[in-house]
Write a structure and sequence with these properties.
Length: 227
């Protein structure tokens, strides 16, 4: 056999390797660890973050390992969350991985990934667009107060605040600056606080997902007022 052919065969073999082979050993930071329902899942990332972010997160699931191009901020209080649940109501449980990809004053960005045991992801729809379609509002400024008249998920609400309570009031009620996810009773729920200023919230809109044609799509919208 010609020696020129050997490198090509080696390259072909490397390309054919499955995506779940272990990542080479290196110093890593464990971001999450869960042992539940005979499932053992660990999330880790390279120890040295870049610009306040862990980039490239490795998932180890029952001794199988795969690297994903995901990101999470480095603050420990915002480390990823891992949940084992059966969101689609079919077959084995999924691993639901909730990431925090950004935060600030009156802002928080989240990303979610629903993994099946063969490493395929169940697509998750956009809850913000669904919630925005269920929210309308009107803003009025009076001499000493500001007033918001809202229609949320088919119900009317009115809120009034002293003008001096905030340095800036939004011209309409806003959602999407803060997005969080939770899993409850085998259901995926997105939480989006309704803001009328960067630090003023009237309540939280929740969007529940359901499975349809192999996807998790935003379905029911509800609203919980702040007390």
């Amino acid at each position: 056999m010609s020696f020129l052919i050997i490198p090509k065969l080696i390259c072909a073999a490397i390309i054919a390797l499955p995506g779940y082979l272990p990542v080479p050993n290196q110093e890593r930071t464990v971001l999450a660890d869960l042992k539940q329902n005979q499932q053992d899942i660990t999330l880790s990332a390279a120890t040295k973050p870049v610009q306040g972010m862990y980039s490239g997160i490795t998932v180890t699931w029952n001794n199988q390992t795969k690297l994903f191009p995901w990101e999470n901020i480095i603050e420990r209080a915002f480390y990823p969350e891992v949940v084992i649940s059966n969101l689609d109501g079919k077959g084995p449980d999924e691993a639901i991985i909730i990431l925090t990809t950004g935060k600030g004053t009156g802002a928080r960005d989240s990303a979610i990934h629903v993994l099946q045991e063969d490493w395929t992801e169940i697509p998750v729809g956009d809850p913000i667009a669904k919630a925005q379609n269920s929210l309308s509002s009107m803003y009025k400024e009076h001499q000493a107060t500001v007033e918001y008249t809202m229609n949320i998920a088919g119900k009317a609400y009115v809120y009034s605040y002293p003008v001096e309570d905030a340095h800036m009031w939004f011209e309409e009620a806003s959602i999407g600056r803060i997005l969080r996810y939770r899993v409850q009773d085998n259901k995926l729920i997105a939480e989006m606080p309704v803001q009328v200023s960067p630090g003023t919230y009237t309540g939280t809109m929740e969007v529940e997902f359901r499975e349809y044609n192999g996807k998790l799509i935003p379905s029911e919208v509800s609203y919980i007022e702040d007390l």
